[in-house]
User: Fold these one by one.
Assistant:
Number 1:
Amino acid sequence: MIIEKKVFMKLQLLKALGLMALILSGCSKCSRKETTVNSTTQTSVKKSLPDILGTTHTAGNYYLTDKDYLNEGADQVLAMGSHVIKVWFYGKRNEHPEVMYPFNSNWPKANSLVDGAKLPYFKTLFNKPFTTYILVVTSLGRSADYWRDGITKEQEKDEQRQFYELAKHFLTTYKDSGKTFVLQHWEGDWMTRGHFNLDEDPRPEALANMVIWLNARQAGVNQAKKEIGQHGVRVYSAAEVNRVVSSMQTGRPNIVNKVLPYTNVDLVSYSSWDSCVDHYNDPNVLRSALDFIAANVPDSPDFGSKNVYLGEFGLPENEFSPERVQQTMANVVDVGLAWGCPYIVYWELYCNELKPDKQTTPGELPTYQSDLIPRTPLAAVHNNNAVRGFWLIKPDGTKSVVWDYFHRLLTASSKK
């Protein structure tokens, strides 16, 4: 295919020139797309809103039923009318399912990603009537960001192997189901830094290593698709960016401009807090950020130049007025739909953040009790005021203003 040939040639050229030198010097690609895609390879089926608008379910601080926690949340998402869910599937070493979905659950240890996908809780989830599962996943056996200080050939091969095996499992087990599985990592601009200090840029070595890591994950998915084919089921690999506006406006080095141009990922997830919240009153910033991401990543065979989705957005309802929340959410949804995002994923179903332990000074990141307290039934909260308000459903079981907004949109779409 045209994109495969061009990406292969591009990667060979990068190896010859030296990836580090390119990342240090920048790339002229940012202003335009270099990769063209045969339009016949792109996904042409127009999706309905329930197949676009979804939510994340992970690490909530409360539960409302006696169901296993993963599937309690999944049923709530379906009840709202959405067919898209984002969950943590072995997202990081300290964020495996037993930590992220502990309530009413007894998680066995998985020795491989495929073993994890075969666990009863995940099998139940994957058999529900969702059309798309966005899975936050990293390889087992090492930390999620092990590559930041270097990645060996053996690690690169094992990365490809683990993603090949997982993609192959989905392609065979869910053949002819009509389902899509997107395999992404968590906010990569924090991963390249190893911290949350916005004043420090990532080291060029970390950015170069991330290129290798992402391409190894993608190679595994591509290997499975080439071997098995995609018969009524789709599997994609995605990178997630979260610091885009500073690169777009001032040229700061981040994944969007120093990593994506040298990858061949199927999709890019944009955790869009730096535009949808920081510039909530100017939707043009979010629109420009989507354009900037798309200009920096090669086109995708199935999605063309619209291979960027909104992987996170939200606003804590306990800290902002209902009017501010509604305006922000409507701006994001409107921009995302008008731009052509294949997915628009809200953060999140049940709030995962308790209120800050103390008042912070300007520039200081808050610390939360939820970072320190294991999620156990005894630690579950029942008071709406105990959490910040990243929710569709509150601890007392009532619906949020965002749930009402999404439900109206999804119900109206289903009646068309």
Note: The CA atoms of residues 316 and 390 lie 5 Å apart.
Number 2:
Amino acid sequence: MARFLLNYNAFLSNVKIIISVLIKIIYMTNLDLTKYGIKNVTNVIQNPSYEVMFQAEMSEKNEGFEKGTLTNTGAVAVKTGVFTGRSPKDKFIVKDSITENTIWWDGTINKPIEQNVWTDCKELVQNQLSDKETIYVLMHIAAQTKILVLRFVL
């Protein structure tokens, strides 16, 4: 057991070093979204300030679900339609040889999907984010493992 923990801790240490290097590389270079299948974006704004996001959310050009409304507390509210928030019951994971024995497949929270379903969803997102004038990319560190997560906001 001690050997396993030693190897696991060494592994986590190496992962943290790799992630910190990747974060530095991303911050130092322009983010190329084409490697993620997102094409024809005129402006990619990384880690915008609150003021920049506020102006973008309140822009007169916004329509429909993009349109923000200033609340009496000074926060911006955006109508999302019937799809509000995230649900823990909407967690789908590709079931393959890697995840088959590493995910708790209870059928309620972790629901298996086929690779082709994931590919279709990914293509849908890539098409939705492509051909935009501006995309805001927020870099976040998530969870205790400090894994880099990219969140795209239109």
Note: Confidence is low (pLDDT under 50) at residues 1-6.
